[in-house]
Amino acid sequence: MAKYNGTNKNKKIRAKAWNRANYHTNAFRDTAVGEPGEHVSVINFNFSEMRYYGKIDTEFDPVIVDTTRMARMGIAGPGHEKVHLILPPMKDMFDRFQRKFGQAVRLQKIPDDDPYLAAPTPFNTFVDPVREYRIYASNLMDTFNQEYLSDYQRSQTVKGMSDYIDHLIDYLTIMGSEFPITLTGWRKSKQSSLMSTGIAISISDLDCSIDAHKEEFLLDKNCVQFYLQTCKQFGFNASKQCPWIIVADILGAASKFYFANHGAGSTRGVFQNFYIKTYTLDLELLRPIIRKSYGEFVKENRLLKEIKVCRSNHDKLVYKNIFRTPINKREYNIEYDQYYWIPHYIQIRNMEDEFPYNEAGLVRITQKASEFEKLLDKSKAMSYINEQFRKKYRFAHGGFSYYKRRLEERQRQSENDTGRVSDDVSNY
Structural domain tally of the chain? Predict the structure, then answer.
């Protein structure tokens, strides 16, 4: 009988919470080497800033992997014809990882019929973040069209693209930071998966939402510590939520050797060599998604009835039928260019970061960014905008830096309290 029974299908919230807590507390409790506790390679990628692992670089900018720098990993055998993409250093790391398990099978440490560990094989390595983002943003825009603009009075005020964009800003304000629309906002959200970072490999096709599968894969076996030690030896961490997902430890000594062999001898070098900052792609990706969505809205809402009061007879209403038309790509790029989007983009980024700036602050940033766009180029304008928000969310509420400051404050308070007690005792 399974010890861990948590699934997303647990009917009772209390039972689901207990089961998840049971797994989180006990699954890896005695896996450390030579001491109690969890093995150092077991990482909870859902905790605090660990959910940003591989998604935010050393300069606190959201990033996506540069697919032109990735290597191909072809897996031979039936059902494994798919060619996986992976960072070149990780290809070397995983090759050594596989050899170690092959050696363990020969030494009978692992049964040769183990479906996953006898010969670890990538079932999945990389999900394209741009494709993942486009699907997400398109679904968000579909909801905007089908639900928010389904209101007749509201849809009647949409006479053209500018009206459509104004309503979109209102909609995003209502939805809040949980539903970002820029690539940068999406990258920092829960919508962005660990598998899109380019540094994760899944060696199983089991379901992460079923805790019993984690027992089947590893926890019921005698090789738990061997598995975790091998991960650490070759520069990987194991996901606590899905132990069959192994993730490159780009801060670790073991992985540093492999990354250095590919020209990235530091964490900063890893991000500089293999990743792209998302803010450089935000408008490039978002603008066509909005144009396409507007075209779909027009297709379903071709007719607009405009009602006016007759000038000569105020008791009479004049009805006029207006037919909405989609905007072609050329017209769109001319009329709604980068300069047009700057104030809207700044407003959206402010909403996605939970309003760090007031109206006066947004005006100041918009004026400065517009000057950069006119006098220099769009990349300078986007860089300036990004810097204004980066310096805010670096120390945002709920992040690692936030909790670190709170712990330091508590420690100082404790030391101060201890000092006061000591002084009091010395007086006796």
Answer: 2
Can you tell me whether residue 157 is helix, strand or coil?
Answer: coil
Q: Which domain holds residue 390?
A: 341-418
Domain presence at residue 30: yes
Which tokens go with 27?
A: 């699954």
Are 374 and 260 in the same domain?
no
- Do the domain assignments include residue 405? yes
pLDDT in tens, 301-328: 988 766 665 666 666 656 667 788 899 9
Q: Which of 79-88, 151-160, 170-179, 348-357 shows the lowest per-residue confidence on average (mean pLDDT)?
A: 79-88
Question: What pLDDT score was predicted for residue 106?
Answer: 95
In whole angstroms, what separates CA 31 from the centre of its chain?
A: 29
Cα of 292 vs its chain's centroid, Å? 24
The answer as to whether 90 is a domain residue is: yes
Q: Are strands 83-86 and 236-239 parallel, antiparallel or unpaired?
A: unpaired
Distances (CA, A) of 317 to 155, 260, 309, 324, 396: 20, 75, 5, 21, 54
Q: How far is CA 86 from CA 96, 104, 196, 246, 425, in A?
A: 15, 25, 11, 13, 63
